[in-house]
Amino acid sequence: MRRDLCDGIGIARLLNATMVLPKFEVAAYWNESSDFADVFDVDYFIERMKGFVEVVKELPEDIALREPFGVDCSKRKGQFDYVETVLPSLLKHRYISITPAMSQRRDRYSLQAKASFCRGCYEALRLSKVLEAKASNLLKAIPNPFVSLHLRFEPDMVAYSQCIYPALSPSSINAIELARGDRKPFTGEAARVWRNRGKCPLTPSETAFVLQALGFPTSTSIYLASGDGILEIEGFTSIYRNVYTKSSLLSGKDFDRMHGNTKAALDYYISINSDAYIATFFGNMDKMVVAMRALKGLYKTLILSRRAFANFTAEGLEGEELAKALREAHREDFVMGRGSALPDCFCEYKL
């Protein structure tokens, strides 16, 4: 969501368009009904974007009752020009909604659009005052120093990976199968190749093994920056016992009133301010967290290598031999820290 919003800011500047304060999609699966103002500071966002992109809270009356003309650029491949392709629709309909192109390279943006993208993404977007206060209190409640761990092993995420885990419990396997839908898992040789390419999420017990191999004491304080419903989580918490979560730190009523976006926003805030950040999967949230941590000068950031774990276990390595190989595979990132921002970001703050 944050990534698409950042893209939308850059695109609005490219098209010299006014941005209407976005409305979040309602997703029943994630118990989601929060609005932009529930997560972000609206007035701050509008004020900080002045001179870059005009942002309005509501549509003008003459077009407020119309549905926007939808422009879906998500399937576009290769070089893609928003001005050539999207601007005619904007001029014709005056009001459009856009799904950004995943393949669009922002280094082809004009200098003004680059500046607007970076301004919006790294300066104008901050949490609402209520949510930031809650996140700050949450941060203070976690014993220092601590690691923020983004552990991904929810049923839908595992199902989407198309990987199979025969060693999981029957209840976990059933939850994954229910989430698969038409996305069938790879089998046979295809499954082996897929796993060795690093496409399969680490289980909680595998994550615990990798952290131990890298020398993290089992007494390490760990904040679990994850969604609800992590499968086989006891495989991690039976080894690392000082684990803190949103649900354990917030009151029951307070936690139950929160929705998916606000919960994710808390995880994001904790992760960009933690002493160290570790991710088991380099997804959208991880890319944003890594970028913001680099911007803040926090380089104790590590992305665990699923490819290395898969290849070493396929070779038959186990125990201390496997741990030694994993230490070597992560040595450079572990020692140096991961400080790279989004690969196509070029924040020129003096613009």
From TrEMBL:
Coiled coil: none annotated. One of its GO terms (molecular function) is glycosyltransferase activity. InterPro entries: FucosylTrfase_pln, GDP-Fuc_O-FucTrfase. One of its GO terms (biological process) is fucose metabolic process. Keywords: Carbohydrate metabolism, Fucose metabolism, Glycoprotein, Glycosyltransferase, Membrane, Signal-anchor, Transferase, Transmembrane, Transmembrane helix. Its main location: membrane. Pathway: Glycan metabolism. It is found in: Membrane. One of its GO terms (cellular component) is cytoplasm. Pfam families: O-FucT. It is a single-pass type II membrane protein. Belongs to the glycosyltransferase GT106 family. This is O-fucosyltransferase family protein. The gene is LOC109710636.
